[in-house]
Amino acid sequence: MAVEEEGLRVFQSVKIKIGEAKNLPTYPGPNKMRDCYCTVNLDQEEVFRTKIVEKSLCPFYGEDFYCEIPRSFRHLSFYIFDRDVFRRDSIIGKVAIWKEDLQKYHNRDTWFQLQHVDADSEVQGKVHLELRLSEVITDTGVICHKLATRVLECQGLPIVNGQCDPYATVTLTGPCRSEAKKTKVKKKTNNPQFDEVFYFEVTRPCSYNKKSHFDIEDADEVDKMEIRIDLWNASNLKFGDEFLGELRLPLKFLRQSSSYEAWYFLQPRDNGNKSLKPDDLGSLRLNVVYTEDHVFPSDYYSPLRDLLLKSADVEPVSASAAHVLGEVCREKQEAAIPLVRLFLHYGKIVPFISAIANAEVRRTQDPNTIFRGNSLTSKCIDETMKLAGMHYLQVTLKPIIDEICQVHKPCEIDPVKLKDAENLETNRENLRQYVDRIFTVITKSGVSCPTVMCDIFFSLRESAAKRFQGDLDVRYTAVSSFIFLRFFAPAILSPNLFHLTPHHPDPQTSRTLTLISKTIQTLGSLSKSKSASFKESYMATFYDNFNEQKYADAVKNFLELISSSGRKDHKSIEQPILLKEGFMIKRAQGRKRFGMKNFKKRWFRLTNHEFTYQKSKGDHPLCSIPIENILAVEKLEEESFKMKNMFQVIQPERVLYIQANNCVEAKDWIDILTKVSQCNKKRLTVYHPSAYLNGHWLCCKATADNTPGCTPCTGGLPANIQLDIDGDRETERIYSLFNLYLSKLEKMEEACGSKSVYDGPEQEEYSTFVIDDPQETYKTLKQIVASVKTLEQEHAQYKRDKFKKTKYGSQEHPIGDKSFQSYIRQQSEISAHSI
User: Fold this and answer.
1) Mean pLDDT along residues 583-605
2) How does pLDDT run across 631-660, given as a tens digit for each residue?
3) What does the pLDDT read at residue 730?
4) What pLDDT shows up at residue 567?
5) 404: pLDDT strictly greater than 70
6) How many CA atoms lie within 13 A of 518 on its CB side?
7) Can you list the alpha helix ranges (DSSP code H) found in 677-725?
8) pLDDT band at 379; cut points 50, 70, 90
9) What InterPro entries does the entry give (predicted)?
10) Residue 119 dihedral angles phi and psi, to the nearest 5°
């Protein structure tokens, strides 16, 4: 989800690896161990939670989390909790990283010390104030000074224990006085509109003095005064109201101006308490990759995009812009991700991969090593399978993976690791059954393999067979090296990375999946001496169960089917595909004539056939909405029910209102529901952004409940994977990579010149580049550099224009914004340098 900024879209995303914690404080009891989990928070809003690791002070999580960030934020925070069965889970400590500091730790494993957490430091949100210092002449003719404090509104206050009923206290304090006043409580909102004014008498009445509006004593007193605004959550609990944040402003700054209006970030309360030493709470290992893409309108990217898209037609392909990107990037994966997405978007992925695969096959000398390296070709095919093959994995592997994770059958076949109560033969039989079932499901799933993958496999097969005509098996191994080695085997080994399970499996299940993955990988490899390929003797013994010819024949038939020319795509798979599920809160739809329209927690389940909800997971559905009945899926304004993260599923007869757990979950559900219903013939073009309550629509005030919508529907996500990608965003990412590695581009230009002129032995510094045609490559490099420098100038101009228009203290950049202050310093330095 992008934030619009005057024609430019800003996309934020974060990819996190939560490794492990160590040296957590012992539990104050006889056991001393803890049951810990870790949460990921945008400010105070939880967006992800790991599994619970029981009975450990050094818990290993090993979990990955990726999300598109749909709103602005100040901190990315990580909290370590200790589960408590009888009471609320307790916080052990936290790691909070300022948004502007995220680049310091970009893609690096880093140990962070856990910090102490207390209620007074956990604040978020901003407040809008207007202060006015004025003279008042009394009836007797003397002058006094009064301060008017107007509390207009707040935004983004934290939700405490599922609710937020905020109010503000306004206090004028001085050396010898303290006067406090309070706003009304605003129910069920974290964006309260107060708009209340409070008056305070600042100075004592005195005779008017032309030299100064204050006598000496009063001036000293005013300089020591301050106005303090505290935000609180009105709680019904006996522990009292919860502190949400405060703001302290000295009155002396009003001596320069009698009126002042601005937005401010709320600050923690300084209560003088000393926090614990960081070493007392342990540490947490994290790897964080935060990305912020500033995307211009499509026309800006035309030269670079056109240069990239014609890569498949360039002869030789090593002289193309896409291949050059793979040469200059430090990791091939960096280049592969945006390239694959861009070519998928424009429907050119198959010719592009065919071209670079042909070039790689021509350079390969041994058929046994074909596509075994981490080349641009391998990484691009890996990324294509991940994007196009997710539903394919859901159909084939997910049911059995779920069973393995839930049943926990013992499958250890290493005699050294065998537990006392386990039987080796029983474990072998359990493992054999699992391998047999997964192997059968895979080899019978050829008709479900996505068309784009089949077209790529056909190209690989033909290219390999033509290059190594004496090897009859190379047409199979070229395909199996991807579909088994790089697709099915990794998905079995780490199902959480392929969205087959929500978390990394427990150690016993992980070991079972490792043994299955090894066996499936070997079965699919079609190597001559399979038992010898295992280092472990127990694996070689176990593999004897699968040495029959029927397994090799099944693999060949499967590979033949998925790499055949002219194969039709079986779009309508009879078996429903589970796309997403989880608990959310829904409002009654009014299906019954009488009854309250209250809110209830339900388990929602979305497949490619229907959208259902039930009381709990596994129960019979209470309501089922066919996909063809979903006319639109849109956000719902918070004012409707005073609830955040709400969206609406619009049907022909009624609307289903749903509240997600957080902003990331809400975005995910809206996106996938929109995508799966995008091709419905009766989709709406307009909708109501607010609810129909008390006889009228809150947005347009129309009284009839069947009144057509008042707001255009959002564009949504097309159902076709080729279009389910933002081409401009991917081109912007490619520009960023070229700009990052600009020095390598220049080095490559030098290498082209060296090869063209001397045509002799390569210099060592140029030997890393693949340059088949120096003149063509040089032309491409000049075009790339020109396009990159043009875009760089556009970004620089945008930053200068934004700097001129930005106002400190505005709603977008409240006072107290550390990131904006650093931005001001940075832009000031750039301006001074340019002058």
Assistant:
1) 77
2) 999 999 988 888 889 999 999 888 999 999
3) 94
4) 46
5) yes
6) 19
7) none
8) very high
9) C2_dom, C2_domain_sf, PH-like_dom_sf, PH_domain, Ras_GTPase, RASA3_PH, RasGAP_CS, RasGAP_dom
10) -60, -30
pTM: 0.79
Q: Is the pLDDT of residue 820 over 80?
A: no
CA dihedral sign, ordered 71, 76, 78, 79: negative
- Answer for the pair 146, 195: CB distance below 8 angstroms, yes or no: no
| Residue 814, preceding peptide bond in cis (omega within 30° of 0) | no
Q: Do residues 453 and 461 make contact, with C-beta atoms less than 8 angstroms apart?
A: no
pLDDT at residue 765 above 70? no
> Which tokens hold the place of 688?
């109501």
Alpha carbon distance 702, 715 (integer Å):
25
**Dihedral angle over CA of 822, 825, 827, 829, nearest 10:** -140
Which pLDDT score is estimated for 573? 38
Instruction: Give the C-alpha separation, 33 to 595, whole Å.
Output: 49
Q: Count other Cβ atoms within 10 Å, centred on residue 141.
A: 9
d(CA 116, CA 113): 10
Please tell me the distance from the alpha carbon of residue 138 to that of residue 459, in angstroms, as a whole number.
Answer: 92
pLDDT tens per residue across span 385-401: 998 888 889 889 999 99
DSSP state of 48: E
Residues in the chain: 835
Residue type, 614: Q
In angstroms, the CA 722 to CA 711 distance is 28
CB-based contact 33:71 (threshold 8 Å): no
What is the average pLDDT across 110-132? 88
CA–CA distance, 525 with 12 (Å, rounded to integer)? 40
Element (H, E) at 462: helix 451-467
Distance separating alpha carbons of residues 339 and 334, to the nearest angstrom:
9
Mean pLDDT of 603-607: 91
**For residue 213, which amino acid is it?**
H
- Per-position b or e across 767-777, b if 16+ CB within 10 A of its CB: eebbbbbbebb
Local confidence band at 47 (pLDDT 50, 70, 90 cut-offs):
very high
User: Rounded distance, CA 264 to CA 245, Å?
Assistant: 11
User: How far is the C-alpha of 378 from the C-alpha of 705, rounded, in Å?
Assistant: 55
